[in-house]
Amino acid sequence: MMFKVPRGTKDLLPAETGSWQAVESLIRETCRLYRYEEIRTPVFEQTELFTRSVGDTTDIVQKEMYTFEDRGGRSLTLRPEGTAPVVRAFVENKLFGSPDQPVKLYYMGPMFRYERQQAGRYRQFVQFGVEAIGSDSPAIDAEVISLAMDVYQRAGLKDLRLVINSLGDMESRNAHREALIRHFEPSIGEFCSDCRNRLEKNPLRILDCKVDRDHPLMKTAPALTDYLNGESEAYFEEVKTALDALGIEYVVDPNLVRGLDYYNHTAFEIMSTSDGFGAITTLCGGGRYNGLSEEIGGPEAPGIGFAMSIERFLMALEAEGKMTETESRLDAFIVALDEESRKEAVKILGNLRREGIAADMDYMNRKMKAQMKAADRQKAGYVIVIGEDELKNGAAGVKNMAEGTQETVEFTRLAETLKSRS
Ligand code: HAM
Fold first, then answer.
1. What pLDDT is stored for residue 202 in this prediction?
2. Which of 28, 39, 251 is nearest to 155 (CA)?
């Protein structure tokens, strides 16, 4: 029987992990500049955490969660996203008690959603996300958006489009909700069963319906922007002013709604506008979630954050021809010509590595020529040759591969010599 990687997941082979590492270190470095610290939460949580926060009428909760019962009869779910777990950890570990507020956190790790597989959409994917919890200053909204843009721009991406919107506060959202119910209720019998369910629970989701999208009532539905109260409008203005101050370009799209229920006020997405990019153009999504902490039993702690998948980040780099990878350097390769030399090579290899020199040797009993070829393939900086004569003299032949020069160096001075050359 041949086993295959599960649908919607993939192996990352060494040919790809170099570019992953390059992106990961750029992300960590950017977070350091913005003073966001790393948090790591478990990959599974109590199921209810997600049904409550992401929302039980959302696609994620209704169709996409990997939920299972453990041997103790508890319902657990592989995390489909990182915000709810991070806010849970913020509440449970009483981070709200720290004098340094807001608490600025970032995470990078696998998320799981049972979605239809296509380019840029996987069932296991890695999200990098940040959450700034404890402040409702519009300036922190701009900081979070700026961090996301910065990560992409430092990686060299240019074809980006930042779209922002305001979903308003609870009062505005409730007023809009009532208006939607008034709009759809008289004709709800003409809609699908999903929409009929959504009418009371979450009428906003009716607007996302794929079955009824051509119903005439869809086009005339009341727009959220018409229901923003003065406070929400003023907040949104301040976010825009802060973005302007940072020199960040954006487009306001009143139709931008996000697929998770915990959002209010600022919502944003970053898209790739590159020609080479596939059908799914959203690279990053985020927004404000005042009230989420209270929803899951914590104190009042307004928050904002975003998440982006590394998979789509790399697709965008590929589309713009900006792929880079961390270089895995091989400083020295030892070519040993017989059994005795191989024993000495093992010893030298150990010494070199202890001194911080990346070194390797042949373990396939290859002939000298094949060993030289292997050193070449792996782009070794130096080749150290040990044979019968070298053993007798206690000194190896050291070849500088870039320059083609050769010298003889005592075994005991190999590490020191190579270090002085690097
Ligand atoms: P989201 O929009 O569901 O938001 O996901 C954010 C990003 O995760 C997407 O823009 C995309 O880059 C990536 N993503 C989502 N699903 C997949 C998938 N199946 N395959 C590959 N990439 C995917 C959230 O998850 C929120 N927690 C973001 C947030 C943080 N809001 C506030 N703080």
1. 86
2. 28
- Ligand 1 centroid to Cα of residue 155, in Å, is 19
pLDDT score of 420: 92
For the segment 125-169, what is each residue's pLDDT rounded down to a tens digit? 999 999 999 999 999 999 999 999 999 999 999 999 999 999 999
Q: Which amino acid is at 421?
A: R
Quote the CA–CA distance of 86 and 95 in Å, as a whole number. 11
Q: In this predicted structure, what is the pLDDT of residue 387?
A: 97
**Residue 44 φ then ψ, to 5°:** -125, 155
Q: Which residues of the chain have pLDDT under 50?
A: none
> How far away, in angstroms, is 84 Cα from ligand 1 center?
13
> Tell me, what's the pLDDT at 257?
83
Q: Which of 141, 265, 290, 309 to mutate to test the pocket of ligand 1 (most atoms within 8 A of CB)?
A: 309
- What's the CA-to-centroid distance between 162 and ligand 1, angstroms? 15
CB-ligand 1 contact for 131 (6 Å cutoff): yes
Q: Is 242 in the pocket of ligand 1 (CB under 6 A)?
A: no
Domains, in order of start, for the chain: 14-169+229-319 (3.30.930.10), 330-421 (3.40.50.800)
The stretches of 170-258 forming alpha helices (DSSP H) are 170-184, 193-201, 216-219, 230-245
Count the Cβ atoms, other than its own, within 10 Å of residue 127: 22
Distance 309 CA to ligand 1 centre (A): 7
**What pLDDT is recorded for position 280?**
79
Q: Which two tokens stand for residue 71?
A: 């041997």
Residue with CA nearest ligand 1 atom 7: 308
Query: Do you know the residue count of the chain?
Result: 422
